[in-house]
Structure of Regulator of SigK:
Amino acid sequence: MTEPDLHLDTAALALGALPPGERPAVEAHIETCELCRAELAGFQETVALLATVSAEIPPASLRRSVLAAVAVTPQLPPVDRPVPAFRPSIASPPPEAPGPVETPDNVHYLRPWYRRPVTWIAAAVAAVVIGGGLVAVDQFRGQQQVAQSPEQCVATATDRSELTPANGQGVVTYAPSCGAVTVDVAGLPALPDDRTYQLWALSDQAEVAPRSLGLLPQAAAGQPQVVTQMTRPGEVAVAVTAEPGQGSASPTMPIVWMTELA
């Protein structure tokens, strides 16, 4: 029977995840192993930090932004290391069995940080506390959740508020926790075929240019239109201007419709 490697139990000891029958042997080993003492001290510092962490509900946009970043991040190709085949000749004798290999004193093997499922579970719990648990909990429980769309997030957010425009009809639903706003434009007069309405996000900083949130072709035809767009920190209002048919890089004054995100 293979004896457990006591070098691998420092993480489990720091997390209090060792079975009672194994703890004395591990503690006795650590007293004689300088490397394990240093490793245990590092793990204990990390565990101590967990007590200062407060759980927070991550915004609904976090999962969506992470998945979007993953989709455009190039992955490294697998390393191809072909193993040459041994092809003995008829005249050559069969290869001798390799003898024991002596390991130099200055070589230290890298060991895995886990040895048993209980340590993995404890580490997974720590990951849930530190990271908010959005992805770790899903994997730990074997569940797959579909990320909310911005429209769904705004519609169900507990901090959403309905705002009315200062100079027009319609309604704006703003949810800071989603980082998104749903704009329901109604009552704007129809524009000529070569003109359209364009939606903008306005910042509270004068040096930050208005950001285009897209065109409103239905509103330009005199019909109601509902759009949901992501907002950025510092953006305090949404506005509509009348622009050339293909839209503009910056708003054309005057603003025909505006709502403050307060």
In short: Residues 64 and 109 are 40 Å apart (CA to CA). The two ends are 69 Å apart (CA to CA). Residues 108-115, 133-146 have pLDDT under 50 and may be disordered. Residues 34-50 form the longest helix (17 residues).
